[in-house]
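hey team, just a heads up i'm posting the complex here instead of the shared drive bc the drive is being weird again. everything in one block, sequence lines first with there labels, then the predicted structure for the whole assembly after. its two chains so it's a bit long, scroll down
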Amino acid sequence: MTFDSLYLDHAATTPLLPAARDAMLEGFALWANPSSPHRAGRAARAALEEARARLKTALGWNGEVVFTSGASEALALALTRSALPLAAVSAVEHEAVLRHAGAAARLGVDAQGLVDPAACAVAGLVAVQQVNNETGVIQPLGAVAGAVRAAGGVLLADAAQGAGKLATPDADLIALSAHKFGGPVGVGVLLVRDWAMLKPTGGQERGYRAGTENLPGVLAMLAALEADRGWLDQAAALRARLDAAITAAGGEIVAAEAPRLASIAAYRMPGKSANAQLIRFDGQGIAVSAGSACSSGSLRTSHVLDAMGIAGAGEVIRVSLGRETTAAEVDRFAAAWREVAGA
Amino acid sequence: MIYLDYQATTPLAPEARAAMAPWLAEDGFANPHSPHRMGRAAKAAVEVARDQVASLLPPGGRVIFTGSATEAINLAIQGSGARHVAASAIEHAAVLDTARACSTLSELPVDAGGLVAPDAALPAGADLVAVMQVNNEIGTIQPVDELAARARAAGALVLCDAVQGAGKLAAPEGADLIALSAHKLYGPKGIGALWVRDGVQLRPLIHGGGQEAGLRSGTLSPALCAGFGAAAALAAARMADDAAHVGGLWQAAREVLGRWTLNGSESQRWHGNLNLRLDGLDVARLMSECRTVMFSAGSACASGSGRPSHVLAALGLAPAAAKSSIRLGFGRYTVRDELVAACAALDAAAREQGC
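-- predicted structure starts here --
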């Protein structure tokens, strides 16, 4: 990173926390295969199982834990190995869910990006995310879970954006990704309330995920998960400051009325395409995104904003704050925004 | 303590660790799929790593990064839509279990030396033939290219699990799909790759952001890719030296353990694997008596299952003989004198058992 660069794309990925890096380096010393029967293998196994127990404590989770290579794999595992067939997904899910969704019903959202819990009463697997990756909107998963279970269904929650920031949602299957909360890329988790909800595939992780376990990654993820979350209060204050500055300069906040994660915001700049904005910001060393990192560069409009019926969806960019983001950086971005907007 | 389980996993090469460091440092965290400057720098590192891994593989294909070799094998078998898989009887469980779960499986027999005959009959209707390069339990090197040529002539796709051979031997030329694992070639855990010959069509198993040309969604780790790439580059550069070192280790171990019987062909093998048996040996007792020697009985994955090895059974070994077998694996960082001392300790402990 050059001295003048400003990273406001923490929803795409966020820096590895020093504690996570330290845990990873310690993990490299435990490099034996946790499935090996000798002493070194057993030591790695013991460390893995201790990490599993600590992860459950950190997440307040009493169910099962399957370590994966990331949230995409965790979601694919849940969606393809579910005992119940996939029946419904929210229209604003990440592509990692939607691409598996086939003919499953789409649960629409209102103009604030929220699903209607009553509509989630479906007797099958239902996928509703915890936090939207483009807008930061937090879904009412407590009410959704109640409706799904009352109907005899199972709720899958993509918690990639909320994990490590919000409390673990009330859901039956929960996917998370370490690199979104200060852990390393390449490791994630599927939380499983009851093994009966999934069909096993054989191999490691009690037969639910084959492949040698990534112990250094798991240890680093755990360290990140156990890190202090006090920064989110600061992020909420900074986001409020940014919201005010953007609104004053003629911008619009997407889903302003919905409960939103403190670190993600989506702003519309009327009359300027998102791509034009990105080029201008990039030229100033400012990293933001149009929608998700995965879909950046494509000319597709955002399916999330479309589902919300947002006017001018092609003029919306995502700004996402991190642990180290300062008031001065937010002010610098607001000034850049005003300049690009010509306001 | 001496580590003699190089087939289960290998130590991380210092060079791989160093290559990972910048991407674990404070400013190395960008998402390689982000279009901004930091994202582009991360993507550039991923592409350098891809080229380094590709240097271990034939021309005319592309490298798809995955979370593991297991995932790469699943992508190959399930993603190709194979309905009838013909696989050698000694394939890793990642191949056999996936083929059983997702298609019809026909097993290609091996001889007493653990080798598939180059002219083995291929079952009619098989649309995917899977033959591993180097066996993980007994180290035998299969005649992949001969089998591949015949399979392709018959219209089948060819998958080669090269997990144990990659970086040690030249890649098989005739395969359409080749699976690799970083942590078996002195790279990090948590990353593997599938090499896909140009023109071979696959369907993804993990959907989402559409990374890896749509074949494997999920954010790529620049650190894991860089570690894999550096390990691959190092293996390519050191291939002859590593093989010579391992050959010397093999000779030394064989001299100490001359009275033990070798499982698998003596001539067609990777010398970093020594699978041996002694009549009447109690392997669990040996393991508890030689606690400072990290060795295994069969594959790590099957350890503890109590299942007899399907590989040794395929060689025609009776269950008792299979259960009195051990696997010693060594490689780049094994010190000859330490290996000799460990082998002497194992042999002495076996004698104590009356074997």
